[in-house]
Amino acid sequence: MIPSINPPGDRTIGLLAYLYGPGKREEHVDPHLVASFDGMAPDPGRDPSATLKALQQLLDQPVQALPEHARPAKHVWHTSVRTAPGDRMLSDEEWAEVARRIVAATGIDPGEGQPGCRWAAVRHADDHIHIVATLVCEDGTRPDDFRSGKRAQAEARLIEKELGLHQVAPGDGTAAQRPTSAERHKAERQGRERTAREELRETVRRAVAGAQGEEEFFSRLADAGLLVKKRAAPSGDLLGYKVALPDDRNKDGEPVFYPGARLAPDLSLPRIRERWAGGGLQDRAGLEAPGAAGAPAAARRRTAAAAWQAVLVVEHGEDGLAAAYIAAAGEVLDALAKTSAAHTRQELREAAWAFERASRSHVLAVRGHDRALRQAARDLVHGGSALGRGEEGATTAMAIDMLFFLITAAAHWHARKGHAQQAEAAHRAAEHLRTAYRAAAEYPLAVLHQRGRRLARPVLRRQAEAVHAAIPELVEQVLAEPGWPALAATLAEAEAAGHDPVPLLSEAAGHRELGTAESISDVLVWRLRRAADLPADAASAPAVQRMPGTASVPPRDRDRRRHR
Prior knowledge:
The longest helix has 34 residues, at 420-453. Helix content is 51%, strand content 9%. The chain contains 21 helices and eight strands. Mean pLDDT is 91; it is low at 545-564. α10 runs parallel beside α14. It has a five-stranded antiparallel β-sheet, with helices on both faces. Strands 6-7-8 form a three-stranded antiparallel β-sheet. Among the domains are: 2-163; 192-265, no CATH class; 454-564, no CATH class. It has 564 residues and is of the alpha+beta class.
């Protein structure tokens, strides 16, 4: 259950007209009163003799009773209270009780003999109500509504438990500001998938990903088509910035600008500068020109390697280091979503969008040690857009697979710290990554599967023995998985390249949990191909063909034997 308190307004009649009206797209059905401050307010929705003017005058009476100079300029308090998708439909009586508890908790009408404001709760949909109040108490004083948003959220958590509704994770004050109802309605009218605030937050996060300084950051904002205003001190030092969408205008036709801090707490200029303070990033040779041959695939390999190392830090490192790595993981997800092929882009975008909430907490991030992840984000951006096939498509699957475990490690870290909202957000991001992985990995794993099925029996038996020697506790599960032929083919390729499969497999399986993997075989395939520097796209590598009697001997050793 989500209460969403809007900034105070100045026209009670205007808000009532909207609540009792048809809505912007005829979405309001049967608008009616479910509760009010005295239980006897007129209901223009169901009482033919009642009018909006009569309800407005009743609510505004304490305001009008004050001398004109003492009346608050913004006297209209408004919140919506909405149940979660999938919750049962509450009755009018239940919604009335919800309204009474919310106005009591927020100080609008505390009850127990204390002076309160006049209010009314209107329902025009199955899943939510609106509460409108006027911010002058019956005795002419102002209500104690300080931090009313937090108080409403705390009461909503209690109501959820009592009514058997979906329980929302409690917040800690590090979440980005929610779009207002006005912003949501404006987005609906304009046919936008997200509000202007949300679109700007995503665009700014992508501009930050892997950027190494202010010049590059602001250049990326301009390249993305945003309008940018910078705020400077008299000395000329840059203090902040704000951004707007070119087509998002107010009633006067002017662009609507949002400061970075109003998009998300970590998007203010001082917080962005903290990322750069940890040390500069570099332009890798061969990645300077986006789209250069092999650049997207090379960037994804580096990303997989950086994510592999980051998992260990998040699982076992100090809190400040873990927080920095988790924040940098958000940059990698933003960069990957921006540069990946169409068949994975939407799920990767949703993963980055969900993980945004998990990238912040009250744990102070110690920047600098996260440079490898931030460099990976930069490499992805500078490497350019990847194709969904060949080595670029296969390395995308490899990178997603490694990132899945990093994001899962972040979820576990947040859970241990009691960061409920962040843990939930990280789990959502992991599920989107899982879906994106299936799309990216389908073809390259199918090629490996066919190769594995064509391996000679002695070769297949020897790879099974290697699994038994390296990971005896997992051997039965691995050999029973549909992905086993692909793993066997990868082990054979690694052996052909001169690697000993047993220690290679032990390293790939060790020190990183595998319990959340849908297929242990798939995970080991990508870890082995990265560690052994095998092509991610097996279709581009020569098939392994060996006589059973020589298959276990690496090429270098066979050459030495022939020359003895």
